Amino acid sequence: MKIPLSNDYFQFRLFTIRQSRCAMKVGTDGTLLGAWARLPSTSGDAPTILDVGTGTGIIALMMAQRYAQAHVMGIDIDADAVQQAFQNAQASPFASRIDIRHADFCALESSACYDAIVSNPPYFANALHSPDASRTLARHTQALTFRMLMEHAWRLLADGGQLSVVVPADAQGSMESEAALAGFFKQRECQVFTSPTKPAKRVMMAFGKHSATLERQRLVVGSAEHEALMSEYKAQL
């Protein structure tokens, strides 16, 4: 994959992410989560995946690529992001299996629960807001707090499903507390470092409705482990 100097699009081997209308551009967080999140093995023959706060649609597209039998829906409350994510999905080889909707996660109704929910959620709680309203919406938790995310994920997730998220390392405790209050158990964790000598920068976590042996990983961006994760994703191209 490459990032053009214009930064108007992000080129993968099988699809292109255009991002000029999105407040939040393609970044490491979404790319890592899209390669790390799992669809549980207990899912049926036609599994469903929900991408909450889809933005450019990158995670939805990566999940559709990795799981060829899955139907993926990406939702966002930013109308511009929804339109761009829809265009990205329609231009991809997975267009028939991806729906993009302008929807509020907390008001989302579904006749069936999802086998997997993935989200790169807003995480700034008390920081100064950006003058760009769309960027504030994408980055700050007022529209989707961790508690709201967990409560509605519990409502929409299948019994054997898994919720996967990525947050700054200093927000891990808050996310875990809200997950526990909602009834979730942490099943997977991956600490993400930018340097082996510095504290973790990000953490990816997966939660389910039942207790399970916790899988722990440590990932240094640029390391052999990081390359292995991305190589596993690229092997599915």
Task: Explain briefly what this protein structure is.
The chain is 30% helix and 26% strand. It has 7 helices and 10 strands.
Structure keywords:
single chain; 237 residues; alpha/beta; eight-stranded mixed sheet; two-stranded antiparallel ribbon; 7 helices; 10 strands; disordered N terminus
Written description of the protein model:
By secondary structure, the chain is of the alpha/beta class. Helices cover 30% and strands 26% of the residues. The protein has 7 helices and 10 strands. It has helices spanning 28-36, 58-66, 79-90, 133-139, 146-156, 172-182, 224-234; strands spanning 9-11, 16-18, 48-52, 71-76, 98-102, 114-119, 157-168, 185-193, 202-208, 215-220. The strands form 2 sheets. The chain has an 8-stranded mixed beta sheet with strand order 5-4-3-6-7-9-8-10. The chain has a two-stranded antiparallel sheet with strand order 1-2. A hairpin with a 4-residue loop joins strand 1 and strand 2 (16-18). Helix 1 packs parallel to helix 2 (58-66) and helix 5 crosses helix 6 (172-182). The chain is globular, with a radius of gyration of 17 Å. Residues 1-6, 126-130 and 132-141 have low confidence and may be disordered.
